[in-house]
Amino acid sequence: MPETGEPTDDHPWDYTLSIPNDPRAVTICRRTLRLILTLHGLPHLAEVAELVATELVANAVQHTKGPAAIRLRWTHGVLRIGVWDADPTPPTPAPASTLAESGRGLALVQGCADGWGWYPLGGAQVPGGTGKFIWCELTAAA
């Protein structure tokens, strides 16, 4: 791998990791994400990617009762991190003025990512029939 942190291979790739409803899943996802980025020559994205992925996975584990999954996709110089869960409730970022210890995760994702969004899932896409997919993107230049 080049020492500059440039990707060794610009071919698209993606990984999906199923997540049980277990708080330990957050650490497993974070460590897996760092390993994947390092092996693909993208260690310079690891810190911010870990931060936003931790927030998204923690929300899925903390606020839902069912399974979830994280998906990492690299294409055209953009890393997309997505998390689905079985709760169809739309995500709502807390106001920036909130001083609470929790509830600021989506605001953090908004501040760190180059873009983010969500969409509802239904039918055969999700076990149980409903849910949502929340995603954010980081560019290679980050």
TrEMBL record:
Keywords: ATP-binding, Kinase, Nucleotide-binding, Serine/threonine-protein kinase, Transferase
Domain Histidine kinase/HSP90-like ATPase: 19-114
Keyword Phosphoprotein: no
Record bears the keyword ATP-binding: yes
A GO term for molecular function: ATP binding
PANTHER family linked: ANTI-SIGMA-F FACTOR RSBW (PTHR35526:SF3), ANTI-SIGMA-F FACTOR RSBW-RELATED (PTHR35526)
Protein name: ATP-binding protein
Record organism: Streptomyces sp. R35
